[in-house]
Amino acid sequence: MKIEAGRDYLLFDGDCGVCSWSAEAAMRMDRSRQFIIEPYQMFDESELARFGINSEKCSRALQVITRKGRVYAGAFGVNYFLWRRFPWLLAVFLIYAIPVLLLFEVIGYRIVANNRHRISQWFGMKACLIQQPDAEAPKAVSPR
Q1: Is 80 helix (H, G, I), strand (E, B) or coil?
Q2: Residue 81 forms part of a structural domain
Q3: Count of CB atoms situated within 10 Å of the CB of 102
Q4: Would you say residue 133 lies in a domain?
Q5: pLDDT digit string (tens) for 4-36?
């Protein structure tokens, strides 16, 4: 798939239940189809590289590519998307007007992103296919 100039894109992790659920909610909110909302896995690495991102960055946070080619990641990408939606734009305005709220949003986004595989399991969503540390892996024994 190719990223066209003059269009806004919201790229999410299609292998993650929380991410897919959030993308479906964004699609319902975007009735006028101002955004092309797709899993980042639909795009070649070379296509992502045109905008200074790669699969690794996309697997860690939502990425928004604006119609002008600017990239916003994570909470900032969410805010870019919500800024075009009333009444959500009022919340975004408030978040930027009171910097501590933005700090809480960024921290909250990171907590959810880092634990999305657990959250998916808790809510019975499609299990995340992201790499998880193996809790049952044997521990190395140091020589004495």
Answers
A1: helix
A2: yes
A3: 17
A4: no
A5: 999 999 999 999 999 999 999 999 999 999 999
